[in-house]
Amino acid sequence: MPILICIDTDKALYYIKLKGLVTIGIEADKAEILQIKVHVFFKDFYFYPLRQKKHDKKKPQKLKSKQKKSPGLTKVLRVVQSFKVTSFYVDMDTGDCLMNAKLYPLFALLKYKYGAFNINFDGRVKLLVHIENKPIRILRSFINY
Length: 145
Known about the structure:
Helices cover 24% and strands 37% of the residues. The longest helix has 17 residues, at 97-113. It is an alpha+beta fold and 145 residues long.
């Protein structure tokens, strides 16, 4: 069951998908600016993270004696390294023609070496990133090292 992460600024698609189970996406909303859409099987749920919450009387919190230990930096790096970028495309215009001209050779070199980098003078800004991972690779990154 692959985990897919998609960022597409041209089509305004931003989502994380566990193929066959759940899709979590960020969408624009007219009233609330931002909404999170969770699609589970055949049902959609919407959450609004920027909505003001009603403040109730808060109870005093008890101090916890044990602090949770955060994962080490090496573990986080190993999990990040388990992800694979399947497609990457950059098409950008800085708005300054001189800066575009200076970046043109750099983007040509990146296109030659890695591909999918483009500089334009038309005002387009586009980023397309598809990243995938599998849960077994995440588990393996914890176990093997």
